[in-house]
């Protein structure tokens, strides 16, 4: 996302280039984004009767896809059920023996 900020004649900043991502998917008879603060019930907009999905959920879908289907490495992830933190991941990437 490369935004270029320009200052106009009136001194106001304007964004010259901007980009957004539209992520569309269809989910039926499932709970694509449960709310852990509300017994994992679906996040709903009851006015429009639609399920809401947060950006965090979408990022998780993308990370899972990259790891599972593209063989990619995610900087902070889980390995054998345990969370791998940034320090451990960096040591692995740089091939450093991280015993400290």
Question: Could you describe the 3D structure shown?
Answer:
With 100 residues, the protein is α+β, with helices and mostly antiparallel strands. It has a domain at 1-54. Helix content is 22%, strand content 20%. The chain has helices spanning 55-68, 86-93, and strands spanning 5-7, 13-15, 34-35, 41-42, 44-45, 50-51, 77-79, 82-84. The strands form 4 sheets. Strands 1-2 form a two-stranded antiparallel ribbon. A two-stranded antiparallel ribbon has the order 3-4. Strand 7 and strand 8 form a beta hairpin. The model has no long low-confidence stretch (mean pLDDT 77).
How are the strands of the biggest sheet laid out side by side?
1-2
Overall average residue pLDDT: 77
- Strand tally is 8
User: Could you say which structural class the secondary elements and strand pairing correspond to?
Assistant: alpha+beta
- Oligomeric assembly: single chain
CA radius of gyration = 20 Å
The CA-CA distance between the termini, in Å, is: 37 Å
State the main characteristics.
two-stranded antiparallel sheet; alpha+beta; 100 residues
How would you summarize what this structure contains?
The protein has 100 residues and is an alpha+beta fold.
Detail the topology: elements first, then pairings.
Layout lengths: L4 E3 L5 E3 L18 E2 L5 E2 L1 E2 L4 E2 L3 H14 L8 E3 L2 E3 L1 H8 L7
Antiparallel strand pairs: 1-2, 3-4, 5-6, 7-8
